[in-house]
Amino acid sequence: MTKAKWISYQDTNYRRSIPAEERLSICLRFLATGDSYRTIAGSFRVGISTVSMLIPDVVAAIWDCLVEEFIAVPGAEEWRSIAQDFETPLRLHSNFRRGKRESRN
Fold it and tell me: How many Å apart are CA 39 and CA 43, to the nearest integer?
């Protein structure tokens, strides 16, 4: 299945669907500007409820497409290294004693 199919819908006898390109544009405008759904709906001449349903769908599709490429899950050896770093005690600088900072004078 092509990636555009993830955010495309079929036309019906009662309405034409919003093309994938426009759905992506609406979502990217929201993510880039943080404008309200009302403002975006007016800009693209679609309903507010359409925008409110469209944005989470497109964001989920973007996530599903990109998560495996750009978010690496650590392997077993990497997890062991991370755990070992947490178990190693911190060596704080000697200027700190009993929670108070010594003056340098």
Answer: 6
Q: Do the Cβ atoms of 26 and 40 come closer than 8 Å? A: yes
Angle at 32 between CA 28 and CA 36, to 5 degrees: 90
Per-residue pLDDT of the chain (105 residues; tens, 9 = 90+): 455 567 777 777 887 888 999 999 999 999 999 999 999 999 999 999 999 999 999 999 989 888 888 888 788 999 888 888 887 776 655 555 555 555 555
Task: Say if CB 18 and CB 54 are below 8 A apart.
Answer: yes
Can you give the pTM of this predicted structure? Answer: 0.61
Distance from C-alpha of 57 to C-alpha of 70, rounded to nearest angstrom: 20
H or E element: which one contains 100?
A: strand 100-101
C-alpha span between 9 and 79 (Å, rounded): 41
- CA max distance for the chain: 83
Nearest to 27 by CA among 14, 11, 10, 46: 46
